[in-house]
Amino acid sequence: MVKQAVDSEVIRVSARVRGVVQGVGFRPFVYRLAVSRGLIGFVHNDGRGVVLEFEGPHDSVVAALKALETEAPPAARVEAIEWVEVTATGGRTFEIADSADEARVETLVSPDIAICEDCLREMADPGDRRHRYPFINCTNCGPRFTIITGVPYDRPRTTMAGFAMCPDCAAEYGDPADRRFHAQPVACPVCGPRVELRGPGGESVPCEDPVSEVRLLLKAGSMVAVKGLGGYHMACDARNSNAVQVLRDRKTREDKPFALMAADIETVERFCEISGEERELLLSPKRPIVLFRKKGDELPEAIAPNNRYLGFMLPYSPLHRLLFGGGLDVLVMTSGNRADEPIAYWDEDAYEQLAGIADYFLTHDRPIYRRVDDSVTRVFRGGEMLIRRSRGCVPTPVPLPKEYGENALGCGAEVKNTFCVTKGDRAFVSHHIGDLINPAAVAAFEEGVEHFKELFDAEPTVVAYDMHPDYFATQYAEKLTGVSKVPVQHHHAHIAAVLGEHGFEGPVIGVAWDGAGYGPDGTVWGGEILLAERSSYERLGRFRRVPLAGGDAAVREPWRAALGYLTETFGFQSGTFDSILPGISGEIREAVVAMLDKRFNVVESSSAGRLFDCVASLLGFSGGVNYEGQAAVELEQRADPRETRHYPFTVTDGEPFEIDWRPAVAAVAEDIRAGTDRTVISARFHNTAARMVAAAAERAREITGLSSVALSGGVFQNITLLDRTLPLLERARFDVLLHKYLPPNDGCISYGQVVAALASL
């Protein structure tokens, strides 16, 4: 702390504040802090954060330095305050100085922040000049990441640059006592963005109040594309069964659940069970989609077919808030895209991409600089478990275990892609890009990488990527020049991500269970038990391999996987399958069995995800999947929480050791023939999978002597599995590491890649 001195001695300190301190009202906060304590000096933004100088009585300066962290604005995140005592210069005022342009950029960028209570009150006040204004904001709320084109964060470096402030807004912007003092997106109906209603081809639809008109259209059953903060949503009245089904048909989205937006939390409580932790998450400034267990069946089943959960969010922009009222209290608010494409965010692209889906467009003239999907999350054991980390979370950095001295780029996986750019001890994991299977997604990946490199002034010298040669992200990495290239095995990246998030060096027993990952032995991995450090891994155990007829076709059609498991368990007497795998024509089934028998067009896999697909098929999921993990998701929904029994399995010796699932598959088949309730079978299988994790961890401990277990992979999004697995591990005195900042699915891979690559170098 500042040196001891007489209370009245005048001192001056120069300080730099690092963290999320731009675009969150930090400079106005510092100004008010200084003025209230009678200090002189200045504050300004630069490329590395906020720079300030305080001069005044010793105790007042000390108190102000403490308050920088303890009283910071709600959206700020102070990571470090570095200061030195300098020579007092005298003066009479404290000023907010112009931002400094620097070649070196180290500042953090704020995520988009949900509309605050103060702005909501003003928007609802007929006497306020921003009454019902769809773009009301202040230093505590509004768009940030989606409108920022560069740093330092000032209006000319946002998509608000084209909107000149009117005298009233300029007065607020320049008044230190005002809540909009130096709020960069500040605007009003006189000088700011405006909404417009357009028809299905993008043609203008004249009307006096576009928002009120859209509310009537939604009540009448129309599909409306609504331009939000990070892209377009497709909206319809969630209480209208016909409208929900029409939207599902038009989007060719057969089964994947729709996200919902409710007017308020009381509306959500009518449809769902909500815990205190879930309430807090739903109301948080990031306003994610939160998964809740639904109660009753008041809303159409088509919103979330065969699912016990509903995904709700609250209005996070003023435009969204204005859509409610007049009998509308809950809307479907799903991504504005066609199947497998990124969300539309440029207006002209939206008119083309959503043609045939949207009846109308509620759009506006504030450009979106970066498309960003909504974040999806849930509560597990009282804490947050992310499923998709995007709007409201990004680009807040994830900490690295240490500063490695080199910047890295992690290119991520093929499915649920994110990329990751590191600088110093920070990892900037991108928003959700999606599946890299079409040109639009590929373009979003490439543009996003360049934006992050520029935004954080981080040119990578190390590039980490998946070992699969056919992944686009891998091919992208291999084409780069002038960098060190480090391939990272998929499941090692999963476990390295957990280790990095916890700052855990390792070694650890890593249980990485998912659908598929490229194995160095030429097989498909996915049910792995690893001895892992951040820099390296060894494969201790795996699931017994299963033959998958048609390779990737078995992912799209889980009954193919089921036939692989059945033939391995019972042999090739196809008549055995009639009673336990109905719904598949005999001719097709015989052809696939023949492929398995001759090992023609067959891939060997140790995937845990395919075992879940197998059991789902045996319990009646006989069609093709319409979204990733669908069969396993529906299997989880069937599990009876009261059932405690499990099926047999073995853990065989060898290097690696194997989890032999054949006894479990045989027992499932026996239960099916006996007419056991399918919900009971599902629960017994989940109990079995949990015991497989625990047994594998015990075997790994016998080999290594370790008692720390890290769990990662898409299979561990399954709350039923986790809820049964953790008590078994804890009773066996294992320390269990789960993800803290990232989802367990492939959204964590890019971060795990850079952790592994930097540690190995």
What's the tally of helices?
22
The CATH architecture of the domain at 195-376 comes to Alpha-Beta Complex
**Terminal CA distance:** 37 Å
Helix percent band = 25-40%
Radius of gyration: 28 Å
What integer is the average pLDDT? 93
SS content category: alpha/beta
Give me the count of strands. 31
Provide a descriptive summary of the structure in words:
This protein starts with 9 loop residues before the first strand and ends with a helix. Among the domains are: 10-96, Alpha-Beta Plaits, CATH 3.30.70; 110-193, DHBP synthase (Alpha-Beta Complex), CATH 3.90.870.30; 195-376, DHBP synthase, CATH 3.90.870. Mean pLDDT is 93; it is low at 1-6. The strands form five sheets. Strands 6, 7, 8, 9, 10, 11, 12, 13, 14, 15 and 16 form an eleven-stranded mixed beta sheet that branches. A seven-stranded mixed beta sheet has the order 28-29-25-24-23-30-31, sandwiched between helices. The protein contains 22 helices and 31 strands. By secondary structure, it is of the alpha/beta class.
